[in-house]
Specification:
The chain has about 180 residues and is of the alpha+beta class. Helices cover about 25% and strands about 35% of the residues.
Length: about 180
């Protein structure tokens, strides 16, 4: 399974992405809306590994974190055989710096893919996965009319796919988010 470090969005951006998930579902496209687990929420994945060691969690928990304004932009499609529809997060220096910082912490862990290296990372929020090719046009059409919108990264969490649980990490100013 996979483990990751993810950036969480403010309430307004979270609600907007969830609205887009619903638009996709209404168009007959299996979106993230179909996943009703409490841990399912819009996020930006900044690091992934096959296993993230407990000592890495402690290091992440010690990181100083301040909210970062971002802009959610246009649609992208990743993959060919099993397309993934995402909304681009427009890269900014503060966002890229945070991703580099987190990547350096997670990089020693096993199974870190090239797609999260700072020179290969594309910041995005996933809207739908494994879209059947014949449904790809409908999926894009369902959310293509939506414009870019501002958001704020308000937290950092860890996801453990083996135990299917998520928890807050990093410090916000002097507070810890756990």
């Amino acid at each position: 399974m996979v483990q990751s470090v993810e950036l969480l969005l403010d309430d307004a951006a979270d609600a907007e992405i969830r609205r887009q998930w619903e638009l996709l579902a209404q168009a007959g496209v299996t979106s993230r809306a179909a996943h009703t687990a409490e841990t399912n929420r819009p996020h930006i994945t900044v690091a992934v590994a096959r296993q993230i060691w407990p000592r890495i969690d402690r290091t992440l928990d010690e990181q100083h974190f301040q909210p970062i304004p971002v802009r959610l932009g246009g649609l992208l499609i990743f993959g060919k055989r099993h397309p993934i529809l995402v909304r681009l997060v427009v890269p900014t220096e503060p966002l890229l710096a945070l991703q580099r910082q987190i990547y350096r912490v997670v990089a020693p862990c096993p199974g870190v893919p090239a797609t999260v290296r700072p020179d290969g990372w594309t910041p995005h929020v996933t809207l739908a996965r494994r879209i059947p090719i014949p449904s790809l046009g409908e999926a894009v059409n369902a959310v293509a009319h939506d414009r870019d919108f501002p958001a704020t990264v308000v937290g950092i969490r860890r996801w453990d796919g083996d135990s299917r649980r998520a928890w807050q990490v990093a410090a916000r100013g002097e507070e810890h988010g756990r």
